[in-house]
Every structure is written in structure tokens, then in C-alpha cells.
Specification:
alpha/beta, Rossmann fold, about 55% helix, about 130 residues, 4-stranded parallel beta sheet
Length: about 130
């Protein structure tokens, strides 16, 4: 199973061609992709047209849905943020800390196209697809 970040899903639904969206196009059906609660919220709030919102909703009905946040993960996420901050690295979005920490703790690879995840790969062992 691969958790896919909103940075990829947004490009996917907007028809933006990247190595990440190409991976989704090529592997959908062969690889089990998952979406998390926080990611789902980010993606769904971005649809402007009701029709597109419904398409996204229907699409994600067939994708495994993961609950990413609880008290323990929130604490671990804060610890990871502080660890990186002590190295002079500031993560811009709290949600990215939660997503990265969830993947690290569950040993789940992350498909993403957001540079905020790179410190988690380099310093904390996040498995990234690329």
C-alpha cells in the first residue's frame, strides 16, 4: 500500500503531468493506493464545481481510507517537527508533519511532490516513491 499526498491527487485531478501523476496513471489497479483523512479533506475542498466534487467523491470511494491522527501520532509529529527545527529545518505545514510521521510509524511509502517531505526522507527515514 502507498499513501498518496494531496500534492499528487490535486495534480492528478487537474490533468497535470508529473512523474508522480504518471506513476498513478500507470499503476492504478496494480498497486494499492490509499488516502488519509487529512489528505482527503485537502483534496475535496479544492474542487470548485459541484460536478468535479462528485467525481472526486466517487473516485475516492474505491480507495482505502486511513485515519492519520491520534494523540500518540500528534505527539510524535511534534517531536519530529522539533527534531528537524533543531537542525535548522522548518516544515511549513503541520499537516505535512502528521502525514510524514504517520508513514514513518507505519512504514508506509508516500507518493508526494512537496518539498516539505524531503527532510523527513533525509533525516527521519520516510520512504518516498521517488
Amino acid at each position: 500500500m502507498i499513501l498518496v499526498d494531496s500534492s499528487v491527487w490535486i495534480d492528478y485531478f487537474n490533468g497535470v503531468e508529473t512523474k508522480q501523476t504518471n506513476f498513478v496513471y500507470q499503476e492504478i489497479g496494480a498497486v494499492e493506493f490509499a488516502i488519509g483523512d487529512l489528505i482527503y479533506g485537502e483534496v475535496m475542498q479544492g474542487f470548485k464545481a459541484d460536478r468535479d466534487f462528485q467525481i472526486g467523491h466517487d473516485f475516492f470511494e474505491d480507495i482505502p481510507f486511513l485515519l492519520l491522527v491520534n494523540k500518540e501520532l500528534s505527539l510524535k509529529s511534534a517531536q519530529n517537527y522539533r527534531f528537524l527545527r533543531k537542525k535548522g529545518i522548518t516544515i511549513r505545514k503541520t499537516i505535512d508533519c502528521f502525514i510524514a510521521t504517520f508513514c514513518i510509524e507505519k512504514r508506509l511509502p508516500l507518493l508526494q511532490s512537496d518539498k516539505d517531505f524531503e527532510p523527513f526522507v533525509e533525516h527521519l527515514g520516510l520512504k518516498s516513491i521517488f
